[in-house]
UniProtKB/TrEMBL annotation:
Belongs to the histidinol dehydrogenase family. Its cofactor is Zn(2+). It comes from Imperialibacter roseus. NAD(+) binds at residues 124, 186, 209. Zn(2+) binds at residues 255, 258, 356, 415. This is Histidinol dehydrogenase.
Amino acid sequence: MQLIYEPPRKQWLELTSRPAQDPARLEKVVKPILEKVKRNGDMALRKFALEYDHVELDDLFVTEEELLASADQVGEELKAAIHVAKENIEKFHLAQKESPITVETMSGVVCQRKSIPVNRVGLYVPGGTAPLFSTALMLGIPAKIAGCKEVIIASPTDSMGQVNATVLYVAHLLGIKKILKIGGAQAIAAMAYGTESVPKVDKIFGPGNQYVTAAKQMVSRDTVAIDMPAGPSEVLVFADKHAEPSFVAADLLSQAEHGADSQVILVTSSKRMVDSVAQEVERQLATLPRKAMAAKALENSRTIYFEDKITAMDYINMYGPEHLILALKDADKYAEMVENAGSVFIGNYTPESAGDYASGTNHTLPTNGWARAMAGVSVDSFVKKVTFQKITPAGLQLLGPSIEAMAAAEKLDAHKMAVTLRLQKIKEGTNEL
Ligand SMILES: NC(=O)c1ccc[n+]([C@@H]2O[C@H](COP(=O)([O-])OP(=O)(O)OC[C@H]3O[C@@H](n4cnc5c(N)ncnc54)[C@H](O)[C@@H]3O)[C@@H](O)[C@H]2O)c1
Ligand SMILES: N[C@H](CO)Cc1c[nH]c[nH+]1
Ligand SMILES: [Zn+2]
């Protein structure tokens, strides 16, 4: 990890950079994949499965037998853990359901806002280097709570053409039956454009590697909405002298192990912590099965020392981490100062992995600084907030003159006419409509 002491503000922007992702290079790889799927449909999906996932697929979708058989392949202990997570995620997401709001803005003028589910949604469950069945929970639960009518999951298979059994177990638990055995940019293209066998969806959700994320961003310029760019994982740990170095190191490594293009940042107000965390990272890294990937991610990562904690918070808000851990004595006070972060973990006993799996919050979160403007997945992401209005003749008599004056001032006479004709009818007393 690169070590920086007290960087001046003019250097901060540079210190918000993520591991170099060359957009031109990504576009060069991803664009032809999108175009080929758009043009050649299922045939292209089969070809890309062979090229990238080394598998010859007969069925593009998981069969009912495969789905039902998944329960036998998941151990009882894991099933119990999944049930705990499911309950917590359901509780937290159910509480996000909003009742319609109705406001009579003027007498006879009633405005309403109501959440209506997005009809057809596609959920991407990553499966390249590790099948993230937890993502199936994080996306499937809010989709079901929102009331989406059609839900498809896409996830890459192993070299035997099987989607991970735990992903299938979770899908079955949530009542999701359509599971596409395709990963990467090609899965995003299939759901965005539709193919002979894959229905086109209205919105695509889910995290993924840089190819998946670039594909989501590219198709969203075209025909489909997306949740947000949820790319390579990140964590920023803000630790003071009271933090426990072994906890901090484990938290940093937990996101470094996601992939070589992950980034982890330690911000600290303690010089002692700089060294003790570095030693712990070295010690723990050596024990990890994914140490090669984590070590690569650490090369993209930084330790930054700020003596003043308020200055440190300013930097953190500028960085906008996907995950922010406040390993501070007065963590609650600093939590109040958070402006930009995907999800915040308060205090020394709140590991980031709690949010990844089971506390109840969603783990599909904005990366690459998008937390400065966007929030992670929630029930809100699966609904459109549609407004309604209803005006009585008496209401239009009250409001109409204001509309007419504004329309005239914008020189939009048809807008004015739409009011004037109605007001005339009311005046004539022939408004029996
Ligand atoms: N931000 C979030 O909320 C969040 C949550 C979970 C995971 N993640 C991230 O998701 C990612 C998961 O990545 P993954 O790779 O394990 O699985 P993945 O499912 O995202 O990607 C695997 C697919 O990538 C495609 N691919 C691989 N190499 C390619 C290449 N050179 N060119 C074109 N396509 C290629 C293949 O088709 C493969 O099926 C990690 O980066 C992790 O950090 C982010
Ligand atoms: N940390 C990831 C989000 O960036 C989510 C995840 C899934 N499994 C483990 N972690
Ligand atoms: Zn994680």
